[in-house]
Amino acid sequence: MKPEYDLLVIGGGINGCGIARDAAGRGLSVCLAEMNDIGSATSASSTKLFHGGLRYLEYFEVRLVREALIERETLLRAMPHIAWPMRFVLPYHKSMRFDGTTPTSKILNTVMPWMKGRRPAWLIRMGLFMYDNLGGRQILPGTRSLSLRGTPEGKPLKQMFARAYEYSDCWVEDSRLVVLNARDAEARGATIEVRSKVVSADVVDGIWHVILEDAEGRRDTRTARMVVNAAGPWVGDVLRGTLKSNSQGGVRLVRGSHIVTKRLFDHDKCYFFQGTDGRIIFAIPYETDFTLIGTTDAEHEDASEKPVCTPEEQRYLVDFINGYLADPISTDDIVWTYSGVRPLYDDGAKSATAATRDYVIKLDRARGAPALNIFGGKITTYRRLAESALKEIGTVFEGLSGPWTAGVPLPGGDFPHDGVARLIADLRAAFPFLSERWATRMIRAYGTEAATLLQGATTAADLGRDFGATLTEREVDWLIAHEYVRRADDVVWRRSKLGLRMSKPEISVLDDWIRDRVASALSAAAE
Description:
This protein is an alpha+beta fold.
């Protein structure tokens, strides 16, 4: 029997979609099954950063940091509409302390016990020097010292903070990154099946027989030569339950929670804050009018339990940032929270904070057909993880072509990395009814495809029904047709963050409209 597909990928997060894209581009036939919406779990709940992981240097994870730093600029060139440079302000005060579990902390406590866990300024500067130079920067500016006296960066902070270091990392629209990888995989021949849960997988005569169940409970079988388990928080459940494997690979579930408040400062830089407990959080300009604060690190026992930002985590983040703010905030200032579960490889670390963010890939041939299991990883290195996965897959499919994704733009990203302002101006010239904010949102979401989406419109009325916050019928139809949208949440919390600006009644009306539209399309396709 010849299988339908070479690969069946379980999981539509960034790792699964990245692997599907890379594999399809090398000529393999690929089916990707996601039980919910594309990128709806961990990959939609990150801190929205492409970063090397400055704090990982304290754990001596130099290879991981170097790989991530190199990737920042590779990814900036491939997706300049959804990723862009950002400057990070790290305020310094002599009272700052290490996380006491890091190797660096243990060494400093031995050779400099009088510091009692405090971070000396020279050590921070040395770490930033490494951060500047490990990845071969070309686009991003390097570190500089910064006075906080009488400057916009210092205005929101307590007077005790007089100096800071400023360095570079990058922002990314994480949910859009996932869906664009899925779209590109599909454009290269992959089949993307959303809201299709893998309920069983068995090997028959060396071929995987995988049963999928859709949202209505209908079941169908897909056959594949190889299975890729990229199920994120559910990787362990799939490994031992669905795939019935005896592999010893383990996953550690760590919940990261975030809060969103009103805008707390009048500039476009991010703050890197270090706490008295040795942990760090970011405070990031978010969706123009807001500030994103996070993240926590807490053990999460059960992948089936939906992660939420608990009242304790909200209080922790508020208290943490109030240690820096001149005008403190309260939990009443929180306008939205979100939480995701990071499926880290279980390396036996004593705490969630200390657990490795590196990825581990394990090929299992024990059941008579190959299965590849993906543990851990971080959003910045998803493309390199996919290349590593394809290297393992190449041991099964002989003659597979080599890596190709570096520098290849994702849909809408085919313009220079510094060309966003020009693209926004061109879009407003072509469609004068767009406000500056509306045009910016369209370019930041769709890049060069924004003009295609709006084609033929001379007034806002030409775009059909207005659902609120500049979301129109034309755009929603595009999202249904091209981006796997089936529910209002897919649009207002993942393809965009318009849920911050839309009322609950508006979102409810949108949800009813989308469900009717999708049902009509499915009915027409069945006839």
